[in-house]
Amino acid sequence: MVRKARTRTGTALGALMALGAVAGCGQSAPAPHDTAPGPHASHSASPTVPAAPPTLAPGPGGLAPVFANGPRNGGRTVALTFDADMTADQGERAAGGERFDHPELIASLRRLKVPATVFMTGRWAEEYPDQAKAIGADPLFEVANHSYSHHAFTGDCYGLPRVARSEMRADVERAYTAFRAAGVKKAMPYFRFPGGCYDDAALRAVSAAGVTAVQWDVVSGDAFATDADAVAQQVLDGVRPGSVVVMHCTRSAAPATERALRRIVPALREQGYRFVKVSELIGAASRKG
Q: Where are the alpha helices (DSSP H) in the chain?
C-alpha cells in the first residue's frame, strides 16, 4: 500500500508497505538496443576508463545526501523508478507460488524504449537471480539498492520490522553482495530507504556505505491499485521537470502499473518530456550545485 512516508522532514510522499504484499520486477532478455562493446570488441580504439556514477556530496555532519528531484530548469526530463521489494522473511510465500515479478512491465519499458531505475532488494535478487542479471545487463536500466531485507531504518515505519542501527550499513552492503552474486555488475551507489523512512541516524549509517539516498517527488499510487487510469492520472498531474516518480513492478501487489505505463509514457512524451535514469538527474543536480 502506498502511503505518506515518514522522513526526517516528516513529509516525503509514498512508499510500499510490507503488509502482505511487496513489489518486484520481471525478466526478459536484453533487447537489441544493447550495443555495449563485448569482450571481443576491436582493440583499435584507445582504452577508456568508465566514468564513476554521479553522486551528491555528503551533507552536514557526514550525513548521506538526499536526492528527491532534479533541476526544475534543466529541461523536461523525468525519471521513472520501480521498487523491486521482497522482505527477508518472505521466502515461504515465494516458494508457495506468489510472484513478485512482472515480466510484462519490463517488456513494455523495453518496447517503449523508456530508461528506468530499478531499486532492488538483495533478497529479491537472491530469489530471482536471472531476472536481476538481465535487468542489470540491459543499458536501458540501472539497478540501485533498496536494502537487503526491506526492513525499516527508523521506528514506526508502517509496521516494518526494524534494522538495528549497528546493522544498517551491513544491510546495505549485503544487498550489493547479493547483486554481485546474481551477476549484476554495475549496481549504482544509490539507496532508497524501505518505506521511505529515515532520520539523521539512518543517514549517518548509510553514508558509510558511500551512497546517495534517493527519494521522489511524485507518488504513482500504484501499489494495490486496480484502476490503471487513476494511477496514470496521478502521475500525469504530479510530474514537473526533473521529477522522480516512484512506482512498483509486481504481478501481485501492483497489477495496474503496466497498463498505466502505456498511458503515462505517450502522454508525457506528447508534453515534451524525455525519460532518463536517476543517474542523469543526479548528474545534472551535481553540476548545478
A: 91-95, 103-112, 122-127, 129-137, 168-182, 200-207, 228-238, 257-270, 278-288
